[in-house]
Amino acid sequence: MKFVTMNFSKKWGMLLLLVFLAGLSIKCSTSEMDFIDPFEFVTEEFDNVPDVVVVEDPEPEVQEVETGEVANLEVAGELTGSIVQVVESEGALELAEETEQIVEKVEETSNAVLSEALGSTDEEVLTEAVESFEEEEAVALLEEETVLTEEQETVLTAVEAAPEAFEEIGALLPAVEETEDFSILEEDEEEFPDDIDFDLELDLELSVKTSASALRSLTLVGPCAESANEAYAVAVARLEQQRDANLATISQNYQRRITEANSRLAERTNAYNAFFSARLSSIRNNVRAIFAAARRVSERGDFRRARQLRYYAFAYSYWARYSLFRFRFRTFETFRRRRILEIREAQASATRLAANVRSNFNQSLVVADANLREALDSCHNQGAGN
Q1: pLDDT digit string, tens, across residues 135-148
Q2: Which of 30, 109, 176, 370 is most buried per CB count within 10 Å?
Q3: DSSP 358
């Protein structure tokens, strides 16, 4: 019995020893796992995602509008002075033949306009109309704030309908000289509506994680997958910040350029108004000089010359009213269209730059997506992500 008891004790001893060693082994293995990284993945893998390139948005070159000039303003004074000299010389002086012919042409042109406006070819009716055209009316006709009567509007319509007649006496009249900048008026008017939309749509058109990486990020769990997605989120946040900063710069520059275009329109308008007022003032002075010469010649008894000068005052005043106010309208329309053109160019530039930013952002996002897929694949292969 003692021998059997000893055998039994040895078996139980060996069993207890095995249990102890097994427990010790398990404890050591668990302790060692505390110091082993369950996956081989580091966030630095996303450092190779390229930045969104900082946009270069150079200032557009703005060309100032050249509005032209009003020429021949000195001619009226020269002509009236010559006529007065001829009359006061009592035959000692004569007008040059060419000048004499064009002065006579003034009367013919004025009669043609009046005949059209009054619907009459009666010489007495036409002469009376010119004789009744006084200096005060002529000067008022050339005031910016003057509201024309129906009769004056009718005469202006007749002037507009007979430009070739005035071309024949153009050497004696104010001459509007437009520049090449007015060629914008030849373009289709529908291209320059008043209610044009200048809003800038910076549609982000964002990429999203590819389906493979998106699916993996949803199905894989655990510290490896979480770390990969966190690193991806940090990289994308950086790209989004860079993209948004670029788009903000583009938008701010565009809005500023709209403001600058509006300011240029106001500045051009103010400058032209000053120019226009100065030219009208010179023309009014010329009209006064023509009437003064007519009175002086009449006082000397040369009624033929006096009548010629009154016809000249009539033609000069109405042509100046028609041509200069038409010039002002065309100038303001040129300014308006140029503003639209400048803003359109700024809008096109901003849209193009925004598209470049989006493209650059999406290209960088593709790299981030690829890194995420690689990281999640690594997690799956190590068995640490599912």
Answers
A1: 999 999 999 999 99
A2: 109
A3: H
DSSP-H helix ranges across the chain: 2-33, 75-88, 97-118, 123-131, 135-141, 150-160, 163-168, 211-219, 223-299, 303-382
The answer to whether residue 120 sits within a structural domain is yes
Range of the domain at 343: 70-180+203-382
Asked whether residue 283 is domain-assigned, the answer is: yes
In the numeric block, which tokens belong to residue 147?
């509201």
Residue 21 lies in a domain: no
Q: Using alpha carbons only, what angle is made at residue 117 by residues 165 and 307, rounded to the nearest 5 degrees?
A: 65
Contact (CB, 8 A) for 220 and 41: no
Rounded to two decimals, the pTM is 0.80
C-alpha to C-alpha distances, 193 to 184, 188, 189, 263, 341, nearest whole angstrom: 14, 10, 7, 19, 11
Between residues 379 and 311, which one has the greater pLDDT? 311
Q: Which amino acid is at 348?
A: A
Q: Is residue 45 part of a domain?
A: no
Q: How far apart are CA 171 and CA 75, in angstroms?
A: 8
Give bridge partners of residue 329 from the DSSP assignment. Answer: none
Among 98-107, 185-194, 198-207, 255-264, which stretch is predicted with the lowest mean pLDDT? 198-207
Structure tokens at 157: 């319509």
Distance CA 323, CA 325 (A): 6
Q: Which residues pair with residue 177 across a beta bridge?
A: 69
Q: Residue 340: CB partners within 8 Å, gap ≥ 6?
A: 192, 196
Structure tokens at 333: 């329309």
Q: Yes or no: say if 328 and 276 are a contact pair by the CB < 8 Å rule.
A: yes
Q: pLDDT tens digits, residue range 280-296?
A: 999 999 999 999 999 99
Residue 154 three-state SS: helix
* Cα torsion angle, 9, 15, 18, 24, sign: negative
